Structure formats: structure tokens, C-alpha cells
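Your task:
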Amino acid sequence: MKFYFVLGLSFFVAACSSNNVKKDNSLKQYFDENKVQGCFALMDNGTGAFTVFNLARYRDSAYQPGATFDIVNSLIGLQTGKIVNDSMVVKWDGVQRTDSAWNKDLNMFQAFRVSSAPYYQEVARRIGNDTMQLWMDTLKYGAKTIHDKVKINAAVDSFWMNNKLKITPDQQLGLVKRLYFDQLPFFKSYQEVVKRAMAMENNTNTRLAYKSGFGNLENDNLLGWIVGWIEENKHVYFFVLNTETPDQNADLKTIQLKMIGDILKKLNFFNGKM
């Protein structure tokens, strides 16, 4: 096994304080019009300034990461050799699932882009409970715990989807910021692999990278995440969008993609002004 621990770089909090935060309540309109609750934050890396809607939720409330955990699962898999490279295929188990994009053989790059739960569950099983917990402790990822205190040997292949492990939006933003700058305790080449998988738009004016994730909260509300960064004029900004709704029929994936586009446009992205 290959391990590479960097102590002192293992916390993700993005240094959000009252001195560098602008509360932007005008962003509430995007949550209201899409009938969701949640929060949004954008960090200007050049100045360290934050633009935040719903600061209390952003800073203090924690939720399961859903498929945003694919970022860390990929990094651990690559670092430990359980994922050979982003072309490594995990064979489809033949089980028909609701998301048809999962019902075939997938390599890591493909699985990451479609948030394939079966792929990353298999990766987690190959990593194993002890090694996974060791990395959670080293990274100080969210609440770190991947199992119940009583059921120590709980399944390693579902803790990021069943509310066992929780993370705050602030910690999520801090994670992708460190990933962007290759500051996580993994080989730089592996961090580059994950960043390539996150890249969704790359043109002359804008580079946009993100990972989405979804799940159900304990109260059965649908939960959604989008976390990543946007670069314009070689200047990088990090963002996180966290939403929830009691509407079990809501297409939260479509809603969130629309919201992140609308919010970033409201904040003057995509028009060459940043």
C-alpha cells in the first residue's frame, strides 16, 4: 500500500469569519423560486473575501456528502492502489438501477462524472474499513466517523450516503480549495486526475469545475450539493451550493445546475467582468 500523509494540512475549514464575509440576502430569490432551502458561498481566493447566503447553515450545519465524497474516495483509491488510474474499469454487476448511466461497465473518469454509486461502493470495499477510517482521521474529513459507535464493523460501502458521515458546507469549500492547490495529503498526480474529472467547462474566458451529490436526510428531505471552483481571467473563486427540499419528486439535479448558473451570473461571472 502507498500512503503519503502530510500533517498540518489535514483540516478543511475555509477561514470564514465576520471580518471577511459579505452576507448577500439577494441570493434568497434563487432558493425561493426553486422552492428549496439551503445556502451558498463564494470565496475570492485573491482577497479571501466570502459572499454568503445563509451564513449559519454554511458554517455550522453538517450533512451527508453524497456523491461529493467521490472526490475523496477517488483520491484514497488512487493513493492506496485500489484505483490504478482513471481508466480502471469496474464491471457492472448486472443489477438494473434507476440511473441507467450506472448500468454498464465504467472506468473511474466515467463513474465520477455520472456519480456512480456502485463503482464507488466497490472502490470503498476494496479500500476497507480500517484504511478508510485512517484516512478520515488523517484528513479530519467532516465528523470523520464512518460507522456507529456500537456497530464498529458497519458497511464501508455506504457511510457517505446514509447520514453516518457528515460535513459542513464550509468544510466542503475548504476541501476543494486545497485540492485546487494540490495541498491535500495525496500525490500531486492523483489530485490532478480528480481535478480533470471535475472539469466541466474550459474555454478562453472561463474554467468551471465542480462535483455534485445528492441524498436523503434523516427527515426524508432530498439533499443536494454542488462544490467546486470557477476561474475567469486567471483568477480563481471557490463555491459551494447546498440545498434541500421536502418534495420527493423534485429534480434536484436540474434545479441545482440552474441555480449555480443563475447565481454565478448574478455575481458577474460568464460575462467577462470578473
